[in-house]
Write a structure and sequence with these properties.
Layout (H helix, E strand, L loop, with lengths): L2 H8 L5 H21 L10 E5 L9 H8 L5 E5 L6 E6 L2 H11 L3 E3 L5 E3 L1 E5 L16 E4 L5 H9 L14 E3 L2 E6 L3 E2 L4 E2 L11 H13 L8 E7 L5 E2 L7 E4 L4 E6 L5 E6 L3 E5 L1 H5 L2 E4 L4 E5 L7 E2 L7 E5 L3 E7 L29 H25 L6 H8 L6 E5 L14 E6 L2 H9 L4 E3 L12 E7 L8 H14 E12 L4 E2 L2 E2 L1 H4 L18 E5 L48 E7 L24 E7 L5 H6 L6 E8 L2 E7 L1
Parallel strand pairs: 22-30, 23-24, 23-26, 24-25, 26-27
Antiparallel strand pairs: 1-3, 1-6, 2-3, 4-5, 7-17, 8-9, 9-12, 10-11, 12-22, 13-18, 14-17, 14-30, 15-16, 15-18, 16-20, 19-21, 27-34, 28-29, 31-32, 33-34
């Protein structure tokens, strides 16, 4: 209990305001512990955690520091990026105690005029686990002061937003922005232009001298012939997919652009006023880039820092308020097919299109063969190297079984659970011969089979486990059939534990480990667990092409009966490709696996089907059906001779324990 709590206890007649404040302070303490693992202490120290006083809820360093300094010299103010709290350390514990007593419950106003109340608690030490040093994406370079302030002003004035909307430059109003096209109209629905319909007038005259200068200086190899001008409202951004040119030009104010690798790692890059971002190689083709919609950017507080990565130095971060932004996007229209060195992510070089959602048993089986069975056979070695830490609740289930129990692990993978409890007789099976071979190398009993037809006598097993398997079946009927096969193996009274990947990767306001571990290491996609405003000029940006499907209703038992949700009542439904370490927007998705090391095959995989590739890190795609809340339990309730003992959520997975 803290010093302030003790004072309240001694003065037991608290007024209504004091009681409300005490409840809020205790709630803040519990929230920090539960969601962030920050432990507060009951005695005065030199350090405090300031709940609500963080960059994540709009409090800048310039706002908070003067408030804290009223109680004494501040030794350190640590403000983690995107977090609603900060840490402050004073020279002495007396100064820290003064801040605790006088500033607790203090109301401040953020840059948007919103009132924020600060809550203080003592911590043993003000510290933050910083991320390792990040590097700019390969091929990325920032050139500062690329044009003069006079040229900047003329560029801004060259665009007349008051013209008739029927103007030849195809002026349009989209959500939160205004758009003009020059040279060709850029079609956002397919990220392309109609080469046969050039717009009259070409590019604005002011652009000609600037582009000629860039050509002479070697920043571009070809003079662009298409320009799109966007004017964005404050707080809104732009998202881009793979692009074909290499320059980003920022005017009038600094802005943070996020670069994202296919594995989910994000690198924030500061673009100063009048700077040029040069993108070549991997940064140009493999990484996506965008400006995240938000009212503030997290930036370096030190005045000497201008361009480059926004580091994780929590002692040097603050907020920068955004204003209206105008972007100039230059493109060179390609007249011949693309032959870049990144065919796995190049729309024009992909040998095939993404598969459609299956509409029959035959199509479902073919989809699983190509995007589950074949993939795991190819990636078995790398996959196994990332599967070494058993999940605690699965271990708990296995260790609670009676000594001598016969247990089947259906979809055992590399045998991670086969040796957990030496007092059990465990046998594993998997569809992948390569994974079964790894099990045998580890001296486990395992064999190859399909989870829909396990060659074990019915009623022979005391228990079964199916961990991260059933979500690979492509239709509701096949998923129910896999569950029924588990039940068939059990003796009366036998139990089965089933885990499937959840669509809800943020549950009860807490992100799963899958979302929290936004890291660079490839291939470690454990299912739910794992070890005056002015413009910027962008050359060849492409808008967001993410798949965001409307939410469907909570599943019911009838959805899984014959004639229910066989596939989905859709036609020509292409399966979206999921971005690793992000939330799901579709239930049926292809999840990338970036193979590391020697794949062991002569032909690495194409993203959407077989074919040759010379990419040093081939990308495979696995089919998943991620389950919504209640869906797994509803499927189990359609089974015969079984009851659900427990249904729960575990780090991004939906789980059930069944009893026959």
């Amino acid at each position: 209990i803290t010093a302030m709590d003790s004072n309240h206890q001694s003065n037991y007649k608290l007024n209504k305001t004091e009681k409300k404040f005490l409840r809020k302070q205790i709630k803040a303490r519990h929230t920090l512990l539960r969601h962030e693992g920050i432990e507060t202490v009951s005695y005065a120290t030199q350090s405090l955690v300031v709940a609500n006083g963080g960059l994540g809820n709009g409090v800048s360093r310039n706002q908070l520091l003067p408030v804290l300094e009223t109680c004494g010299p501040v030794d350190a103010l640590l403000m983690p990026p995107n977090k609603p709290y900060s840490f402050v350390s004073y020279k002495t514990a007396e100064e820290s105690k003064k801040a605790y007593v006088t500033l607790n419950g203090k109301e401040i106003v953020d840059d948007l005029g919103q009132k924020i109340i600060l809550y203080f608690n003592f911590v043993e030490k003000a510290q933050w686990k910083e991320l390792g040093l990040q590097a700019l994406p390969p091929g990325l370079m920032v050139v500062e002061e690329i044009i003069s302030s006079e040229d900047e002003k003329m560029l801004l004035e060259s665009i007349n937003w008051t013209e008739d909307t029927g103007n030849q430059n195809v002026q349009k109003s989209l959500k939160h922005r205004r758009v003009k096209h020059f040279g060709y109209e850029f079609h956002y629905e397919n990220n392309n232009v109609d080469r046969g319909k050039p717009l009259p007038g070409g590019l604005p005259d002011i652009c000609d001298s600037i582009l000629e200068k860039w050509l002479k200086e070697g920043h571009i190899k070809h003079k662009p012939d298409q320009l799109t001008v966007n004017q964005y409202e404050p707080g809104h951004g732009e998202l881009h997919d793979i692009f074909d040119s290499s320059l980003c030009f920022c005017l009038s104010f600094k802005v943070v652009m996020d670069f994202k690798h296919p594995d989910g790692i994000t690198v924030p890059v500061m673009l100063p006023r009048r700077s040029l971002l040069v993108m070549t190689g991997e940064s140009r083709y493999l990484w996506t880039h965008g400006i995240t919609p938000r009212k503030f950017d997290t930036v370096q507080a030190s005045k000497g820092h201008k361009s480059g990565i926004i580091t994780s130095d929590v002692g040097d971060l603050t907020l920068s308020k955004r204003g209206i932004r105008t972007s100039f996007t230059f493109r060179k229209v390609r007249q011949t097919p693309c032959n870049c060195s990144y065919p796995l992510v190049c729309d024009s070089q992909m040998k095939a299109t993404p598969p459609s959602f299956p509409e029959s048993k035959r199509e479902a089986s073919q989809l699983e063969q190509e995007y589950v069975h074949r993939v795991y056979e190819e990636i078995a070695g790398h996959f196994s190297s990332t599967r070494h830490t058993p999940w605690p609740h699965v271990v708990e289930f296995l260790k609670a079984l009676p000594r001598g129990s016969l247990v089947a692990d259906v979809g055992c993978g590399n045998g991670k659970y086969l040796g957990i409890n030496k007092e059990l007789y465990m046998i594993g099976c998997d569809r992948s011969q390569s994974l079964v071979d790894i099990c045998r190398e580890r001296h486990f009993q395992a064999f190859v089979c399909d989870a829909l037809a396990v060659p074990i006598r019915g009623g022979a097993c005391d228990a079964c486990v199916s961990i991260a398997v059933i979500h690979h079946f492509a239709t509701a009927e096949r998923r129910v059939a896999a569950l029924q096969e588990l039940v068939r193996l059990l003796r009366p009274g036998g139990k089965a534990l089933v885990y499937v990947w959840a669509m809800e990767q943020e549950y009860n306001k807490k992100k799963s480990k899958y979302l929290r571990e936004n890291r660079m290491s490839q291939g470690k996609e454990e299912e739910g667990s794992s070890d005056t405003p002015g413009p910027e000029l962008l050359v060849e940006q492409v808008p967001d092409t993410g798949h965001k499907e409307p939410a469907c209703q909570m599943p019911s038992i009838s959805d899984f009966q014959e004639g229910g949700r066989n596939s989905r009542e859709v036609t020509n439904s292409k399966l979206p490709v999921h971005t690793n370490r992000t939330s799901f927007h579709s239930q049926d998705v292809l999840v990338p696996w970036h193979l590391k090391g020697n794949p062991g095959k002569d032909k690495p995989a194409e993203p959407f089907g077989p074919g040759g590739s010379h990419d040093p890190s081939p990308v495979f795609h696995r089919f998943y059906h991620v389950f919504r809340e209640g869906e797994l339990e509803a499927a189990c309730q359609t089974l015969s001779n079984v009851r659900v003992l427990r249904s729960y959520y575990d780090q991004g997975n939906w789980c059930v324990i069944l009893e026959k």
